[in-house]
Amino acid sequence: MASTIKFILLSLTLCVLHLNFCHGQNAVKAGYWFPDSGIEISDIDSTLFTHLFCAFADLDSQSNKVTISSSNAGPFSQFTKTVQLKNPSVKTLLSIGGGSSNRTAFASMASQPTSRKSFINSSIKLARANSFHGLDLDWEYPQSASEMKNLGSLLDEWRAAVATEAKNSGKPQLILTAAVSFASKVDGLYQYPIPSVSRSLDWINLMAYDFYAPDRPSTSTRCHAALKDPSGQASGSSGIADWENAGVGAKKLVLGIPFYGYAWRLVKANNHGILAPANGAAGPDNGVKRYQDIRTFVAQTPGAVVVYNSTYVCNYCYAGTTWIGYDDNQTISTKVSYAKQNGLLGYFAWHIGADNNFALSRQGQLLTSFQDKQFPV
Fold it and tell me: Which residues form a coiled coil (predicted)?
């Protein structure tokens, strides 16, 4: 009985907190930055963004505290101050985890109230000490029903803690977000804790990319971040629909857009469409190419052809046996328009250092009905 009463009180508290922090959320035009992204903080054109994510803080598996490595301490401490020189209104968030982080450490931390408290308290302290306006969780990915349940507890306790901290300090509440799978179930198996996501996070960043890569294995070319897929396979639009069907409102969803692509090696140079036979990556690093490098490839390669495919909503280019799927200006325009038309909160880019002199960032900026608009969450 005592545990039931405790749960009811926590639920009521979170409902009140939800009303307090979700009175209205500015539309999101965001991007991620990290120290090795190829761009200095001072060179970021922050006027093109409403929010910037600084990646990544680490999780200490022994103490369950959030930490910043010594090599990142300086840049992270100056991040907010520097990007606000060009855009005083831009909000910054400290992102924790990332694709190369230890998922086991996150699962262990989230499994116990004491370790969750260590994580939460240290994250708040670190965000305030480094002048961030919010915190972003990038746990890729919970791998069981119990881990998803523990994630829900973490999010609810995190929200309660930031509300208490704001009340005690007199400062605005920290923004809380999470980078999540493009669909509401990881690998189609493990359902995110929908009620906790809805009530405790300001929004979620849908990682609507990396659906395909040359090493998975791949026998044909694919657009790794297609907005649509007539075969019914993974796509940005199917992920958005899935999250909404699961119960998360559109105004909690921010669509992820990649500023990079993948290069496949064609089996035959004269067969170069989407789903053309391929036998792995063209080039190192599994064929990953930044947008700026793709533009250089197109400009400097004789006979290079660029194609926009409106069925999938993606771009690709090819020359000889090299085929690259990526997002270009027309793809960005269509995706941002789709997000607006379907009532999403906004979009984010991974990552801004891969852009070509902010060309893609400006393309998103051109569609500015997101800007200065309040969406009731």
Answer: none
Pairing of the two strands 314-319 and 322-326: antiparallel
Using CA atoms, how far apart are residues 82 and 143, in angstroms rounded to an integer?
Answer: 37
What is the model's pLDDT at position 365? 75
Nearest-10 crossing angle of helices 329-341, 359-366: 40
Q: Domains along the chain?
A: 13-258+328-375 (3.20.20.80)
- The phi-psi region of residue 66 (left if phi > 0; otherwise alpha if psi is between -120 and 50; otherwise beta) is beta
DSSP 174: P
Distance (Å, rounded) from C-alpha 115 to C-alpha 160?
A: 16
* Per-residue pLDDT reduced to its tens digit, 55-85: 999 999 999 999 999 999 999 999 999 999 9
**What does the pLDDT look like over 304-340, one tens digit per residue?**
999 999 999 999 999 999 999 999 999 999 999 999 9
Q: Which residues does the chain have with pLDDT short of 70? A: 1-25, 366-377
Do strands 175-181 and 190-191 pair parallel, antiparallel, or not at all (unpaired)? unpaired
For the stretch 156-170, pLDDT in tens is 999 999 999 999 999
Contact 227, 171 (CB under 8 A): no
Tally of CA atoms within 13 A in the half-sphere of 343 that contains its CB = 10
Tell me whether strands 346-350 and 322-326 are parallel, antiparallel or unpaired: unpaired
Alpha helices in the chain (DSSP H): 2-21, 70-86, 103-110, 113-129, 145-169, 194-200, 236-246, 291-300, 329-341, 359-366
Catalytic amino acids? 140
pLDDT score of 354 = 98
Q: What is the largest CA-CA distance in the chain?
A: 74
